[in-house]
Amino acid sequence: MKKDQYILGIETSCDETAASVVKNGTEIVSNVVASQIESQKRFGGVVPEIASRHHVEQITIVIEEALKQAELQPNDLDAVAVTEGPGLVGALLIGINAAKAFAFAHQLPLVGVHHIAGHIYANQLMQQMEFPLLALIVSGGHTELVLMKEHGSFELIGETRDDAAGEAYDKVARVLNLPYPGGPEIDRLAAESEATIDFPRAWLEADSYDFSFSGLKSAVINYKHNREQKNEYIDAGEVAASFQESVVDVLTTKTRKAAKEFDVKQVIAAGGVAANKQLRNSLTASFNELNIPFYVPPIALCTDNAAMIAAAGSSMFTYGVRGSLDMNGRPGMELKSWNK
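^ thats the sequence. predicted structure below, dont judge the formating
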């Protein structure tokens, strides 16, 4: 009988200190997240130095809690998977050094995981991935379309040329004086309002799957400034709804076009902005119409967590990928295939 595989995942790429145990790459046994939202809220965004200090305070606690909830001892584990990059270098180093120390102390293999691969593999925790598949990654730092022909195979077919979708959300939220984090606030306001303002959509070249949200962000800023100069009322809900409609329209249209061109069997969404209700509804409706299976993880698995890192690490471990104790934080790490 085949032995079950248990992977400890550790994630500290930004402002969430997280640890998780995943069984056989598909089943969450424990998933612990220590959020810094309340601490970072007063600054209106993530302050890297403060994020790193919180990680130092929480990392040992969340690892111990993940093992406790899983009812496992270190010698029950098969490997330790940790986010190697991209992310805030100081934050990454806390998780990486904790993972190296844990792996060394318990003589366990170490696997360095790309943060975006983790977001993609969060879907593996909900259902089997079928290939070829198309992944739309939408987060604070990334907006990408990735074609996967098999496990561990990543072909980047579209990416952001300037602001990522999540970055645009954060900047527009600050312009509208909305509380941090801004993305969920814009989503909430948009659901209560009408999209009455004709903000631009950047389609770029006809054959391009790249994204651009900088012009949209500037259009929102200019709209607000022009209204203020004329002492005219600004309806934050209408601005939020109109901004979000533009973002969702572009993301849905380009993902739909790519899915048809590459004849994929499955489309998945991943990343923090994939928690956006309007985007989820738009993508679901679009792919139902095309009769292509579409999946998006529950909101808790869209935001940063360690279960997704353990899931990706499990696949890497199965394919023989191993890290070493000289692993370092790689804030600009590129997403590369591990199954060639």
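The first strand starts at residue 6 and ends at 11.
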